[in-house]
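Notes from hallway chat w/ T.B., transcribed later so I don't forget. T.B. wanted the structure written out for a chain they're using in a teaching module, and asked if we could keep both sequence and structure tokens in one place. Agreed to drop them here.
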Amino acid sequence: MSNGEQFRDLSPIFEPKSVVLIGASNNPLKWGWVILSNILSHGYIGSVYPINPKEDNILGLKTYKTVFQVPEEVDLAIVVRPAEAVPKHIEECVKKGAKSAIVLAGGFRETGKEGEKLEREVVDIARRGNLLIVGPNTMGVYSAKVNLLAIMSPITVMKGEVSFISMSGNIGVNLLSMGSMENVGFNKFVSVGNQADVTLEEYLKYFGDDPETKIILIYIEGLRKGKTFMEVAEKITERKPIIVMKAGKSAAGAKAARSHSGSLAGSNMIYDAVFKQAGVIKARTINGMLDLAKAFLHLPLPKGNRVGIVSWGGGYGVVAADACEEAGLVIPNIQEKTIQELDKILPPYWSRGNPVDLVGTLDRSIQPKSLEVLVKDENIDAIIASGFLVGGSGVKFASPEPLKKGVTITGKGVMLDDKGISMEVLAQKWIRSSDEQNINKINELVEKYQKPIIAVTLTSDTKAIPKAWEKNTVVYPTLEAAAEVLAKMYEYKQYLEKRKQNK
């Protein structure tokens, strides 16, 4: 209860035992076919009833003429019909006793006064029958618990512990797809559309209470109930992170938000203040939401803002130091005993300070050894490890002149060792083996010392990063991303400590 507002049980939307699809189609170019295909192909565990008065069978399922012919209770109705036909179908759902409905069509409040009038009519009908409405003007929902992918795009979603509320269907669906490529799994997703009935705050409360949701992502264009949002968010952020990307910051963006979802973007400074007070973590970019999710899922929070940097080359150490300080982090001096331990491992001309410059040595066994020495340092709260993942698919050798003993060159210019094995293949195997050793060491040290370690790869080898993600190693392609994520993690840590002190 907040401001006299009752938060309803949204389980009929996210855990339905039965789904009807009003507007199901045999035409693969229509949403009624795509959505039904998604539901069936992702193994929804409940009953599915296609509704179409002109068809007898769609995708192997018996088709019903109306919702009244469905032989069981309806938990969720998905309405894939034009805006002007929606009131009639919602009336039928209410009479059937359906518990919830997703209205996908646009053409409501976002289009002007006539659309707003039509939207009010739909909501009035729904509320007479206590029918929950998702949307209208939505891309749909996803729920891992019941394998429900009721989405308007043919995508694959990786299951996980992140739940996502989005004011943009396209952005939401795109991030769901990206998650499967970047090792971020989702538990629940909703494209809120116009929020004519169920509001963003209700979804947030539901996800906050959901034990299977560990992190909440939100894409926001504007809030209608800022105070309610803040009250709900404050209760959740003590238990789980809320990561928000706020769009509509510019005049042009605010105008676009009004025509897109009917949202009032408002002052960016006000939103920043609301987020800060509620402990909400603000992502700067859309992709940044996934970056933050990965770190909060797989890394402990830093105890402080002091960052140790270990870099295969000096230049990247300088850039990392700049990125950290710009993000509000500190690059401290390392302890004398740390320097003495590194002296035993590194060449005598190493930097002898933080950042730790590994001076580009080809002996990659130095990398995990140096990392362990640095992570033990009491002056260090978190580490950025640059150049610890290399890949190797781009390794090429020029023909040596003269040829070394035992080395031959084929007619195609491929160098072979004395056993007839390509030296490029051997080099790639060596690099990838070293990468794997570094991945294992990073994970071991994070677990042992409970300090976040973020790897930054400087390679274009697309196979290098997924190998790390398979083991839940947090790795980013840029030093700036690593610094920004650590700063947000420290900010959240400070918020939690402040809340604890104030209790």
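Follow-up for T.B.: Residues 257-265, 395-417 have pLDDT under 50 and may be disordered. Might be a good example for the class.
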